[in-house]
Amino acid sequence: MSTSVDLWLATIFEEVQPLFGKGRVADYIPALARVEPNQFGMAIAMVDGRHYAVGDAHVLFSIQSISKLFTFVLALKLIGDDIWQRIGREPSGNAFNSMVQLETEHGIPRNPFINAGALVVTDILTQRYAHLDLALLNFLRRMTDSPDLNWNKEVAKSERDTAHRNMAMAYFMKSFGNFVNSPELVLDNYCRQCATEMSCTQLAQAAIFLANDGLDIGSGEQVLTSEAARRVNALLLTCGAYDAAGDYAYRIGLPLKTGVGGGIVAVIPNIGTVCVWSPELDAKGNSLIGGYALERLMQLSGWGRM
Ligand code: DON
């Protein structure tokens, strides 16, 4: 039986068709440049356990910066508010890979979702986990009940071979005393986390605890306290789309995290989570069709009105 959610997804699927070809697939990581651009998937997981999907919602894609959301959650669980000694919580207003603020701000990145901040998060986790890739995979496998979930070796190597700017940032922060491990080791872990492959349905499921006061529905695990989940959502709203965060808040108004693989995971508190994927990006490195699809979903559903 079709529900109104199915109808909204079908409408959005129709509406995005003329938008293919208007953005550009990320090409700074050679392995990502080969992804077929004309793909679109969208999945919704509701806190009451219902789920919905349209298009390529079951196709695996490179989650890229969406991994920063999950590594940040793991680091918060590990060291709590001590994390704010090493990272700020303000929007940067700059590109995701910008390093201009680091010099005047003493090697403290503006927030955990720009690359500099995510590298510090991975540095924190590298101190604790001998095999961070497995710790992250185990968490994501638990949240999605998908034992086969993995990272893609070719994508990780391709990014690692071209990670000059991230490496420079890591060394720069080390010069300020804000980096503990060797930048090489942290970059290995960072490139693996970015190369994790998941589908829209899996990502919507993995993030559902953020819509549900920190409690994961499938596993029954209290991933974060309700207070911590609310705070993660606040950071996602203000910093999750980099220098497009203000525009995204205006158009969509949800806590969300984007990735250059073309995925976006969004949280609708107390209702559910949405993941949309389409590989072509806009000028700021966020999925062009993904942003449109989320904006339309919010218009059609009326969810999230304050
Ligand atoms: O650090 C990088 O360059 C990437 N692997 C991740 C960047 C990313 O996904 C930015 N998001 N829009």
Automatic annotation (TrEMBL):
It catalyses: L-glutamine + H2O = L-glutamate + NH4(+). GO terms for biological process: glutamate biosynthetic process; L-glutamine catabolic process. Keywords: Acetylation, Hydrolase. Substrate binds at S65, N115, E159, N166, Y190, Y242, V260. Its EC number is 3.5.1.2. GO terms for molecular function: glutaminase activity. The keyword Disulfide bond does not apply. Signal peptide: none annotated. Pfam families: Glutaminase (PF04960). NCBIfam families: Gln_ase, PRK00971.1-1, PRK00971.1-2. Homotetramer. HAMAP family: Glutaminase. Belongs to the glutaminase family. This is Glutaminase. It comes from Formosimonas limnophila. The lineage of its organism: Bacteria, Pseudomonadati, Pseudomonadota, Betaproteobacteria, Burkholderiales.
